[in-house]
Specification:
By secondary structure, the protein is α/β, with parallel strands linked by helices. The protein is built from 24 helices and 27 strands. Helix 8 links the parallel strand 10 and strand 11.
Length: 705
């Protein structure tokens, strides 16, 4: 088959019905073991199983995080959901991965092992964007590093197989989700196979997988791991060949205008889309970019088709994305009987991630921003899934009454973003056929309901809960949406800002912003004007903390220089900065690896090229521009500015970026010392200046991420 025919994408037509209806999450007949009731904590040892009266576990979950029984931690959410279906669940948290005996402590599961790296990808958790080892882990008691292996999902699955060769293994969580197809791996600088092959597991669940998890658990309980899962959404598995009765869709051009007609004719025929094989994307970067484009185009649960990708002599099969949870189902998931505390085994030890989220509330999941570098949309989907006011208020009352150390302050109320609560497409049928990668880029879609009134009303009701003194919004605000509701900005500033508010313009220049799928800096300026006006009227002195990314694909040295000049002009100094890290499966990762732009049609010989920042020296330079005020960076910046023909920016003036002198003891060799400057001198903060920070830990562990 010619390379040009290796990928097919089918354009949806308006005649397609609205979003398919899924079986209600809590409508299944409970498994017989429900008679054992609710566990205060899920057992991590045989002794705890004995206390519960269990002779075995139906499902054993293995995770790279400490076990905290709270819905912000994916393992607890999964465990409580399985318990609600009647299954007995055990947890093996942060096992010693060098010894299979650590995976046998609870015996063999009756149904399957569920394996995840935890709330973070293990490679992102363990290494910086410069591939340096991190020495701490926020999901581990006392923040201790080194408690999970590299590529934890693969290692854990292999140890489970060693311990019990016959036990089925199901992968899930963000590490498995973002590696479900052949993918570029930044840390090894090569294309790797689907993680399902390397882990030698039986199934992979991707995205927020509540629906798939429940269905798979009941099917395995009834028919074993050999059951047919091809009709279960959000599942990946391996097949030897295409089954009879299925049509393999093909086309010479993935952007062909007649694809809508083809889909119309194929609506009632079982159809699968063939992606370029692992061997092809490993060797051909243009085909890799094309496969990435196809995967992201086939992301709408309303019109996506199954995908297959050949790996050697076997097929990796991905069913369409899961149907989003309804509000009632979201409530059901978050209303389960969580202990809302770390397992008693951790008594006396602090777990940083828990300390951060213990008094916060998740009100929604998903993100329709579609930022090309972000994993949220890829993992949680573009359709916002929101909880009801009643469920949220109930959780806040539970925090007030049962969470140790509560002082009346809710540390955050939000989700992946602060202000997408209950925002949705105005027309469900339009939503079901939409193929846009973002609802807000390049402009806010005319079909998007941007009404913030439900969120404003929620804020007011939360503030009125007896015993609640303050409700902070620590999630990142999507400012291009917020400007659509000046009333929301006013409400936010008057009641929910604790001095600083973080937002993420990511850059100031159109070149990198167009590759990130982020709005122009004008949107930031409009939001800042509303924010400052609201703060002044409220008599508050508040500051915005804008986050920026260095070295993103499509960013030039001149772009970073202009960003540094903008930072200096506006009095911002970044304390910690974010250098772009190519996460598996992201569109910007395809840009980084291939040098092509998958946001545009990818055609042989006609694909849009992109300059990427790959060399360590250039990455260091882009990072140095963000920290223009740090004397350690001045020698590098002076050298770069001279080579760029911008030596005019070297000097003491307000319009200049770095001085010509060097404080003693700073810089690569302490060069350029000037008399009268002793020791390491920190530049004086300008009037009205702000110090910005950005660490690796998210506002809260992102649910099942």
């Amino acid at each position: 088959m010619p390379a040009s025919a290796m990928t097919t994408i089918l354009i949806a037509t308006p005649s397609i019905a609205p979003m398919p209806v899924a079986k209600p999450l809590f409508s299944y007949r409970k498994y017989w073991a429900h008679r054992y009731g609710t566990a205060p904590f899920f057992p991590m040892s045989r002794a705890e199983m004995d206390q519960l009266g269990w002779d075995s576990c139906d499902v054993i979950l293995v995770t790279g995080d400490a076990y905290i029984d709270h819905p912000s931690f994916g393992m607890a959410l999964v465990a409580r959901l399985l318990e609600a279906q009647g299954f007995r669940v055990g947890i093996i948290a942060q096992p010693e991965w060098r010894d299979a005996s650590a995976f046998a402590v609870l015996g063999q599961p009756n149904l399957f092992f569920g394996v995840t790296s935890g709330n973070m990808d293990s490679m992102v958790n363990r290494y910086t964007s410069d591939r340096r080892l991190r020495h701490n882990d926020s999901y581990t008691p006392d923040g201790e590093g080194g408690k999970r292996p590299d590529r934890a999902v693969i290692v854990y699955a292999q140890r489970c197989r060693e311990a019990f060769p016959q036990a089925p293994i199901v992968l899930g969580g963000i590490e498995a989700s973002l590696r479900r197809i052949a993918h570029y791996d930044y840390w090894s600088d090569k294309v790797r196979r689907s993680i399902l092959f390397d882990a030698k597991a039986d199934l992979l669940l991707y995205g927020n997988a509540e629906r798939a998890l429940v269905e798979v658990a009941h099917r395995i309980a009834q028919s074993g791991i050999k059951a047919d899962f091809s009709d279960v959404r959000g599942v990946g598995f391996i097949r030897s060949a295409l089954p009879e009765g299925w049509v393999e869709a093909s086309a010479d051009d993935i952007e062909s205008p007649d694809e809508g007609i083809r889909r119309k004719h194929l609506r009632h025929v079982p159809t699968v889309i063939r992606m370029p094989s692992f061997e092809q994307v490993e060797e051909d970067k243009e085909l890799y970019a094309r496969a990435s484009r196809v995967l992201h185009k086939e992301a709408n649960p309303g019109n996506a088709l199954p995908l297959i990708q050949r790996h050697g002599d076997r097929e990796m099969w991905l069913t369409p994305p899961p149907i989003p949870l309804t509000m009632a189902e979201m409530d059901g998931v978050y209303d389960l009987p969580y202990a809302r505390a770390p397992h008693p085994d951790y008594a006396g030890r602090k777990i940083p991630a828990w300390e951060m989220i213990r008094h916060s509330v998740t009100i929604m999941r998903g993100c329709f921003g579609g930022c090309s570098f972000c994993s949220i949309t890829e993992h949680e989907g573009r359709i916002i899934q929101s909880r009801s006011e009643e469920s949220i208020l109930k959780e806040i009352e539970t925090i007030r009454d049962k969470t140790e150390g509560f002082t009346g302050i809710i540390s955050d109320i939000g989700g992946p973003t602060a202000n997408m609560y209950r925002l949705a497409c105005k027309d469900r049928q339009t939503e079901a056929v939409c193929r846009r990668p973002s609802c807000v880029y390049p402009d806010i879609c005319k079909n998007l309901d941007t009404n913030h009134d439900p969120l404003i009303q929620l804020y007011r009701k939360v503030r009125a809960v007896p015993g609640v003194k303050k409700v902070n919004v620590a999630s990142g605000v999507r400012y291009d949406l917020a400007v659509e509701s000046p009333e929301y900005v006013k409400e936010l500033v008057e009641h929910h800002v604790g001095g600083y508010l973080k937002i993420a313009p990511e850059h100031t220049e159109d070149g990198p912003l167009s590759k990130m799928m982020k709005p122009g800096i004008g949107s930031y300026d409009a939001f800042k004007k509303l924010f400052d006006e609201a703060a002044q009227k409220a008599g508050k002195k508040y500051f915005l903390i804008p986050y920026f990314i260095a070295a993103h694909p499509g960013t030039t040295d001149e772009d970073m220089m202009n960003l540094a000049l903008w930072l200096k002009k506006n009095g911002y100094r970044a304390d910690q900065v974010q250098t772009y890290l190519p996460s598996p499966m992201a569109l910007s990762t395809a840009m980084y690896h291939t040098g092509f732009n998958p946001l545009k049609p990818v055609r042989r010989g006609a694909s849009e090229p992109i300059d990427t920042v790959r060399g360590l020296r250039q990455r260091r330079l882009h990072k140095a521009f963000l920290r223009y005020h740090d004397a350690e960076n001045w020698p590098l910046l002076r050298e770069a500015l001279k080579s760029m023909g911008r030596a005019d920016l070297i000097g003491p003036g307000k319009q200049q970026l770095v001085p010509s002198w060097q404080p003693a003891g700073t810089g690569a060799k302490g060069e350029g010392k000037q008399a009268g400057h002793k020791g390491r001198q920190r530049p004086v903060e300008p009037k009205g200046g702000k110090f910005l920070t950005k660490g690796i830990l998210p506002r809260r562990p992102p649910g099942q991420s």
